[in-house]
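Weekly sync, protein design subgroup
Attendees: M.S., D.O., the rotation student, P.L. (late)

Item 1: inverse folding check
M.S. brought a backbone from last month's batch and wanted to see whether the design step gives back something sensible before we order anything. D.O. pointed out we never logged the input encoding, so this time it goes straight into the notes. Structure tokens as presented (138 positions):
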């Protein structure tokens, strides 16, 4: 396991089609079964998303990702942000958020968070707001 003091070299780059298998492995490890089970839809979402970046280690292994939508001027919505468990707490999630926002610097960031990830976003001065969700397959 890596510690926060360990030197970790990562690169953040645009998503490529051959990254999808690694992304699905991360999703499965996280228990995001809906994304894994609906693989075709998930892959199409990646292909259609203007915000689609991966973080990889020095061995070019995908260790995290961010996917989202934006109008480029006002709003940026983060659909998913995931860092593999061994790499959490090392600032990779923050780097992915910063990288995505640097591509669309005039936008505000919006996202939904789980109870377990709230502290991550609060640490970086995100504030909670009220919203709704409906999944039409439910």
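Designed sequence read out in the meeting:
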């Amino acid at each position: 396991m890596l510690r926060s003091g360990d030197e970790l070299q990562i690169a953040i780059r645009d998503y490529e089609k051959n990254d999808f298998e690694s992304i699905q492995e991360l999703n499965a490890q996280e228990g995001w079964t809906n994304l894994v089970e609906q693989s075709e839809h998930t892959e199409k979402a990646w292909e259609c998303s203007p915000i689609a970046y991966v973080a990889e280690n020095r061995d070019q292994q995908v260790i995290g990702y961010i996917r989202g939508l934006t109008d480029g001027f006002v709003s940026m919505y983060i659909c998913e942000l995931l860092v593999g468990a061994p790499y959490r707490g090392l600032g990779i999630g923050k780097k992915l958020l910063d990288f995505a926002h640097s591509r669309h610097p005039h936008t505000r960031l919006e996202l939904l968070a789980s109870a377990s990830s709230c502290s991550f976003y609060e640490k970086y001065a995100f504030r909670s707001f009220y919203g709704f969700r409906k999944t039409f397959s439910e």
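Discussion: The chain has one domain: 10-123. Residues 1-5 have pLDDT under 50 and may be disordered.
Action: P.L. to compare against the previous round before Friday.
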